[in-house]
Amino acid sequence: MNTDINTSKYTQNFRIGSFDTDFSGKVKMTSICNYLQEIAGMHAEALNWGIDDLRKQNLSWVLSRLKIKVFNYPKCKDVLKIETWPTGIEGLFGNREFKIFNEKGELMMIASSCWLIINFKTKRPVRPHNIIGDSYFENEKLFKNSLQKIKALSCGELQESVKVHYSDIDINQHVNNVKYLKWIIDSCPIEFLHEKEIDELEINFLHEVKFAETLTIFMQSNANNELQFAIKKQDSNIENCRAILKWK
Questions:
Q1: pLDDT value, residue 2
Q2: What domains does the chain contain, in order, with CATH numbers?
Q3: Residue 67: what pLDDT?
Q4: What's 135-166 look like in SS3?
């Protein structure tokens, strides 16, 4: 993997393996999210805001909101060039953008994200200014509006229940954000998965989930090929995640 580093933007190449594709041979959205998570961590580390730097202070980055727009789906063995940059601080959020290109330089996807810095001991967010300081940010934002909290479901139907296993837990000792998206996509109607593609996704991560907890996934169908989801703890009904998938 080739890397290009400067103070404000970071570029990394990712080759799509067979394990990163679905039954059509196209890249899975969960794999794209893994790439975004990986390059965000790499750039933060290069800027001395990385996970190792933060853990010395009992802190960690946690993804809170993510939006991805798809223009075209790359396939198995394609090499993607992903470019990322931080765009500044809004309240408690540190914001970061992404562009995904193919080897020809064609823009395949764009993404925007909002991150929190969480104190391990208090489980409370810390103001990013205290960590990032007066760092240089890029002004380029890829979506017209800032990411907002997704509205609650109005009439969601239970799709399935899932239990959290060992492989779902990450270094922060809770369910990794990509696992939520996997569960959501797996709960989609099979006709959507066979006949359509995700055109745009937006997801909010609301509360953490721990090992061995049981979750319930609810879905409602909206207009214009839009499916909306909520993931809740079975024993308390606390919402852990909300998402909207738009299909084409």
A1: 45
A2: 3-132 (3.10.129.10), 157-247 (3.10.129.10)
A3: 98
A4: CCCCCCCCCCCCCCCCCCCCCCEEEEEEECCH
Structure confidence at residue 134 (pLDDT): 66
Is 192 buried (19+), middle (13-18) or exposed (0-12) by CB count in 10 A? Answer: middle
Residue-wise over 114-150: b if at least 16 C-beta within 10 A, else e?
Answer: bbbbbeeeeeebbebeebbeebebeeeeeeeeebeeb
Alpha carbons 113 and 171: distance in angstroms, whole number: 20
Q: State the angle between helix axes of 177-186 and 29-46 in degrees (0 to 180), rounded to the nearest 10.
A: 170
For residue 203, what are its two tokens? Answer: 């997801």
pLDDT of residue 7: 64
pLDDT at 1: 44
pLDDT of residue 75: 97
Instruction: Identify whether the C-beta of residue 116 lies closer than 8 Å to the C-beta of residue 66.
Output: no
SS3 49: coil
Q: What is the pLDDT of residue 10?
A: 95
Q: What is the pLDDT of residue 237?
A: 83
Residues of the chain with pLDDT under 70: 1-7, 134, 136
| 68 vs 32: CA distance, rounded Å | 9
Residue 86, strand partner residues: 96
Q: How far is CA 83 from CA 17, 112, 194, 229, in A?
A: 20, 12, 30, 29
